[in-house]
Recover the amino acids of this structure.
């Protein structure tokens, strides 16, 4: 019988003594558990999402994949430099549960810093968790709009599963459509139909 390898000690983070730029944040790398985001130069740590949450994001990606135009691609759980601060100043980076980005950005993300830029992203998607409702519906809503991300979808797994589709409305930020349950259908930014109930496993 082969023994399973024992996990090593968790990587210890040095708590920064100053507000971080995007470059400093990217240099921190990944944590052993949970994930981080950067908000006005402050590292915000969150626990790892639940299995149900991650499965819903994965199932959403599976439904989207065959419906995306060839120039678009989806990615789960990756940092986005929101570009809300000049280089060298305290930065903003969020990690949407799923994003739809222009395929041409993938090579740069893979080769360079592993981080999308807000201008690469067409749709940011957050799956609401019990501890993230206000952040997803209000804080990220405003940050993604300020960053110029054209579309933001908020998926709430509270039954019945719902999706709120937000789109840029000029100087007013996002305009939010009414929450949809059952099947979400739209023609913008591309024709898509999503069975929301199928996001529950």
């Amino acid at each position: 019988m082969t023994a399973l390898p024992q996990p090593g000690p968790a990587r210890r983070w040095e708590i920064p003594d100053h507000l971080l730029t995007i470059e400093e944040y990217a240099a921190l790398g990944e944590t052993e558990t949970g994930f981080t985001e950067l908000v006005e130069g402050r590292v915000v740590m969150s626990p790892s999402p639940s299995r149900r949450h991650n499965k819903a994001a994965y199932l959403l990606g599976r439904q989207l994949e065959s419906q995306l135009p060839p120039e678009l691609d989806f990615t789960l759980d990756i940092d986005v430099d929101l570009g809300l601060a000049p280089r060298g100043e305290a930065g903003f980076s969020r990690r949407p549960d799923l994003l739809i980005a222009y395929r041409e950005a993938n090579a740069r993300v893979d080769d360079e810093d592993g981080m999308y830029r807000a201008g690469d992203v067409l749709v940011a998607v957050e799956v609401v968790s019990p501890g993230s409702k206000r952040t997803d519906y209000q804080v990220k809503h405003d940050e993604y709009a300020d960053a110029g991300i054209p579309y933001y979808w908020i998926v709430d797994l509270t039954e019945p599963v719902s999706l709120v589709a937000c789109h840029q409305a000029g100087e007013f930020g996002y305009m939010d459509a009414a929450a949809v349950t059952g099947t979400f259908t739209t023609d913008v930014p591309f024709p898509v139909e999503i069975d929301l109930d199928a996001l529950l496993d």
Summary: The chain has a mean pLDDT of 91. Residues 59 and 198 are 8 Å apart (CA to CA).
